[in-house]
Amino acid sequence: MLVLIPFKPINPKTRLSVVMKREERESFARCMLLDVLNALSSFDFDIKILSTHPFQIEGYEVVVDSRELDEAINSRIRKETAVIMSDIPLINPEILERFFESEGDVVIAPGRKGGTNMILIRDRRFRVRYYYCSFLRHLELARDLGLNPTVFDSFYASVDIDTQDDLLELMIHGKGKKSYEFLHSIGFRIKYEREPKLVRISNTSP
Fold first, then answer.
1. Model confidence over 51-63: pLDDT tens digits?
2. At 48, is the secondary structure helix, strand, or coil?
3. What is the pLDDT of residue 194?
4. What do you get for the CA distance between the two ends of the chain, in Å?
5. Nearest 5°: CA angle at 158, between 153 and 164?
6. Helix (H/G/I), strand (E/B), else coil: 46
7. Please, are residues 148 and 104 in contact by the beta-carbon 8 Å criterion?
8. What is the homologous superfamily of the domain 2-162 according to CATH?
9. 126 to each of 105, 193, 196, how far by Cα in Å?
10. What does DSSP say about strands 196-200 and 46-51: parallel, antiparallel, or unpaired?
11. For residues 178 and 183, what is the distance between their CA atoms, to the nearest angstrom?
12. How many CB atoms lie under 10 A from the CB of residue 41?
């Protein structure tokens, strides 16, 4: 199986710029990528990091492609291809094993805001179409092709990190993850009031 992991090493996660400097966001994105790769490490798959810019990571092949995400992925789809986003650091080998063993011509793991965090494609006719509630569009595209789509239900797989609120989920559930440890190292903590709240206690915030 081919596993593609899209990654943006330069100026990623711009919506987090209100709480992190650019250099911190770049380090944080790399930590999330490492968490995803660690979850995949027990599987014998052809893993390729599909990067917008050149960078190196030991033990993995980095393929640089500056085209739009859909075009870059669709040009590489094989008979059995999975696309796993690099910003879902809470996933683990058990979740991935259930995902890879799920039945269906197309298996889709939705994000909490309607995106597609993981997708497993078993028919080369299928083409991805990300952004703008891609989960529903991927279901529709599969059905239009006469394929059998399966929705993969996992809370941890649904948590993609884009905004400050998403960081709170990582701090609640992600202890032991590299991305959690990075956030902790730069001063992020959970403040317990009526509801848990994320705060930054260091003096290095933007």
1. 999 999 999 999 9
2. strand
3. 76
4. 42
5. 160
6. strand
7. yes
8. Spore Coat Polysaccharide Biosynthesis Protein SpsA; Chain A (3.90.550.10)
9. 9, 47, 41
10. unpaired
11. 9
12. 10
Contact 115, 160 (CB under 8 A): yes
Summarize the confidence of residues 109-120 as an average pLDDT.
96
Beta-ladder partners of 107: 120, 150
Q: Beta strands 188-192 and 196-200: pairing type? A: antiparallel
Cβ(60)–Cβ(5) under 8 Å?
no
What radius of gyration, in Å, describes the C-alpha atoms of the chain? Answer: 17
Pairing outcome for strands 106-110 and 116-121: antiparallel
Closest by Cα among 102, 85, 104, 73 to 156: 85
Distance CA 75, CA 98 (A): 27
pLDDT of residue 22: 98
* CA 89 – CA 75 distance, rounded (Å): 26
* E strand segments, 131-185: 149-151
Tokens of 45: 């798959």
Smallest Cα–Cα separation from 65: which of 52, 48, 47? Answer: 52
